[in-house]
Structures are given as C-alpha cells and as structure tokens.
Amino acid sequence: MRDGDLSSAESAIRTAQLSGITLPEDIVNIVLRYHALHGNTEVFEGFMANILTGKPSETQRDLHIKSYLRDPAVFASRAFPTRAIDLLHKYEVSGLHAPMKSYSRIISSLFSVCPSPSPPSICSTLDAPLGRLAANSQAWDLFAHMRYVAHPTPDAHLYALMIRACASASSSPEPERALDLWTEMLDAGIVPTEGAYDAVIRACAKAGGEWVSEAIRFARQMRDRFGRGSSEVGGGDLEGVGGPRTWTALLDGCKRVGDLGRARWILAEAVRADGLTDEMMQHIFHAYAAYRPPFKRGATRIVNDGAVVASALNQEGPLATATECPSDPPPKSAGVSSDSGAVPKDLAHMATMPSFSHLPPQSPGEVVAEATALFDRILQDASPASRSSSNTPPDPFAGRFNIRLTPRLFNAYISVYYSHASLESARDVFERLFSSFSVDLMGDSRAYVDALERCALSRSHERDIAGTWADELWTRWEELELEWASGATKTTVTARLVERAHTAIRRVHSLNGDVDRAITLLRTFMSRYPPTALLPPARNPSSVDGDAPSMKKRTITLFAKPPILSTRTVLNNPSATPRPLVRLTSAIGPPDERVPPLLSFADVELLHARLVEQGRVKEVGFLKWACKAYEGALRTRREAVLGAVPAGEDVP
After folding, report:
1. This prediction's pTM
2. Predicted local distance difference test score (pLDDT) of residue 317
3. What are the sequence ranges of the domains in the chain?
4. Interatomic CA distance for residues 376 and 19, integer angstroms
C-alpha cells in the first residue's frame, strides 16, 4: 500500500485468508480505508463481503459509511447524502450502531449540501434534488435521533459542529439554541475545545445586537483558558484575543452593529499575525458600510465674527473633501448615509492618504477614503509589480494582505460606496472595477442586484443618474437571468435574487415617473414566471386520453415529501424507508427553496401608489389581479405540501 500497489495488497489478504491465516483487523482496514477515501463503494462492499467472515467492527462500519460520503456523485457536487443516511439506519435496524464519528460525518456532510437549483426548468420537476434547507433540517433531526437510539451524550467535536450550525446563513441565527447546547455540554462534564468556543462566539456574533457583547464575553473566556497572545494595544476588552476563526466570528458581529473601532483593531492584529483571510476582509468592508460617522454636516454650527449661525442644508461648498451638494437634498434614504454627497467623486486624486489613526473616521468622506485605501492595498498585493511604497497605508496595516479577488469581496467593497458615497461615485467605481482588465469579477449576480437596489433608493437629485445606470445594469442582468432560466446551474442567480432585481428596476422607473415602463416590466415578469409555475404540471392519467372535462381538474401529486423527510410518528424504523425516529424540526418541515420567482403586493406597492395618483383604474385592477393570482397559487402549493390536500384528491 505504501507503494500504491493496491491489487497486490488485496491479493495478499485473499491468499492469507485461503491459507487459514487470521490477519489483524488493521491490515484489512488499510485496504478498506483506501476504498473509502476514494468513494469506491461497490469495490468496498465487494471486498468486505469476500474478506469479512463476521460482523463488521465499529471502524469498518464507519469506513463503510465514509465510502458513501466520499462517492464522487455526492462529495464533488455536495449533494444530499441519501444513500449514506439509509446505510446508517440499516446498521441501526440490524443492531449494529455506527460509532459517533459516523454520525458526525453525515451531519457535517448535510451542513455542506449546496442549495437546490432554482431555475424554473428544474425546480418544477420530480427530479429536483433536496437542497440546503432540507439538509440542515435533516442534520438536526439526525442529531436528535442519534441521542435517542445510539449515543445519548455527544462529544466535544459534535457539540461544536451543532453550535456552529446555529449560526447557519441558510436560516436566521439561533443564539439561544447555541447557548442551550453550550450549557448542556458543560453540565455533561465535557471540556470545551477551541473549536467549540469559536462556534459559540460565531453563533452569538451573527445574531447581532446585544448578542455581540455575549460573543465578546466568550472570547475573553477563551483567552483566559487558552492564553492567546496579542499586542494588547488598543484592544480594550479584546486584548489577548487571537486566532483567525475567532477574529472572523467577532468581525461578523462588529459589522452587524457598526462597531468599526473593534473591526479596525482586529484587522491590525490579523495583518500583524499574517492571519488575514478573504472572509475577514469582507466583514471589514461591511463594517465600514454599516458604520455611521458622528459628524453630520447638517447639524454643524458655523461661527462667523462671533455670531453662531446654524448651517443650512442648502449650503454650497461642503466641508473638507466635499463635492457640490444640491440646494434641497431629500430626506435620508434607508441604508444610505445622509452625508453621502460630502465625499469626493474621484478618490484616486486625493492628495493625502488616510492616517488610520486610533480615532475612527469622523465623516463619510473619511470612511470611503479608508475603505478605498484598503482595497487598493489588496489590488497592489495581488500584483506586486504595481506596488508602490508611497501608496502603502501606514502602520498598523503595513503588512501584506494576500487576499484573493472574488465577487464577494467586490460586493463588500462597493457596499461602502452605496452607504456613504453619492450614487455617481458608486457608479464610477463600479464601472471602473468591472472594466478593469486586472480584476475579473464579471458574472456575479448579487453585484447587479445590489447596484439596482441602490438605484431604487436614490434621492430626488440622483434620479436621472439612477435611471440611466439602472438601464445599463438591467441589460447586463437580463443576460444572466435568461441564462439561469434556461437551466444553467453554474450561476449565482437564484429565484429570490430575480424577485429583488425586478422589484428594484420597477421602483426605479416608478420613482422617475415612467409608470408605463414599470407596467411593461411587470408583464414581462409574469410571462416568464406565471402564477401557474408555482404548481408543477399535474400527472392526471385521464388527461392523457384528451378527455376535455378532465382538464378542468388537476391532481396535486408532486409535493409529497421524500420518505426521509416524512414526519409521521413511528415506533420502529422500517427497513424499507428508514428515517429518524426523533426530530427537532416541526411537522411543517423546512422552507421550500425550490419555489420559482413570484410577486407580492410589497413588490409593487410604489407602482400601485403611482397608478392610484394618476387615476389609472384599469392598471390598478391588473395589479391587484396579478398579486392575488400569485397569492392563490402559493396558497394551493402550501396546502399541498402541508398535506391539507391529500395526494390523489381533486383540487379546483
């Protein structure tokens, strides 16, 4: 086996068996471990059937399950490990429970399942695979089932895995459940590992709000237990806290509460320790976007010849690095800084580099300048030949960043401009990066959706720019959407992103007074994704014969849950359809991520208001009919999924 001669090793084992020599289990497991690692399930089972004379040991059962998880059809595509789960339950039925390691393997595989494909051509068929939401629910059910039938007390690794799942992005964070598991682990006398601490810190930080303080408390406990080193300069209550995973978790919390001070300190520590990662840098840019600087131009009082004069909102020539501001700016839009007009249009021509002093940025211009300097550092480190010492930010960010340029990083960076800069500045940066030959970020759907939504939040003096830019973005977006609708799987477009993009473009045209264009886009949306798409074609045998009356009735049979997700109460585990005996998920089940794009009244509320103002009764009626059509189709789908309409009964 050391020389890679697998066939000779198998022949030697068979020869020893024919000679009546009983080989140690470790020798046989070497071959089994090789087949399990490469996912050779058929070869694994054939070798195990020919060599083993008795029942497989715990290690061999674990390797057997591992072979199914490493199957290229499951491992490479991150598919739902149905066969591995079936094998696990079959071992339980036979009285041979798999070791806890096997349950941990399957649960970890379930948490890494990719989302279900959402193109209408795929999600409306019986062959649509189970996706991430169903897999996450199954993982929690399997965890409860394991404690009921096999291993009542999980180990530290499995506890850490489940606590980390409480911060899953596929659902809302559950810090309460994470703390329950943490307390349960301590009550069982299990010593928490660094991974368990990182998991509970991440679960609390991801919940945001007051939970961020709880995450910091756990970080201090972790520091006291494991004695992390740190520069202990400017860290405050985080002095001594270190480690890439811990920093990443804390940054996730900082960005949710806009705590830029802590985020900058963590960034300095990560750069100093050469532990900066792509995910950390994304959180840093999000923290800049969420930060609200204390300086507000509109609240400034100007002292002139000893007299205090309240500064008007229509003043020209804003402070410091400000650009021209309209005489009557509109109210603050959600998610957009009220001083967004006070940033330079072209930060590349700024005369001074931000100092990154201990004091956080005091104005939107300073926020954007710091974020731009950090992103320039990433670009410079990506191409060392272009790096210039004059453009290098001063300490504490003087180390190398070594960050990969990814669409997620770009989206995080441009979000700083969406929050603190004018729409014109954001558009210029967006176009400059997308047209740059050195930055290959094309094709990310979320970038276009975020840009369209920023246009939809434009102020009155930005409406012309928003309309022009939105038309350009929409042309590019439609290429991605049509590719997705045709069944392409290697795309980041999802049904929910399609809804957001269409809602944003309709809002842009409604704000600009082009109601007819918004109505046209709405009709286009309904033609691509009609309400009937929420209900897959029914398989009514009588309709095949062309019987006209039978076409008036539809039989909903395509929404039955797979046996593995069935929530029917059972007292034993039948071998035909093995499934967890105890579940943590509700009988309703996980949300269906295979629902195609749909329309709700909230998506067209502004358009409806504009139509009412103009007295266009016919279009208002069409809008109401469209919303009710989707609402009715969604209700019918939900009733079929929940079992309110038994399979086989007629649905009007």
Report:
1. 0.82
2. 36
3. 455-512
4. 70
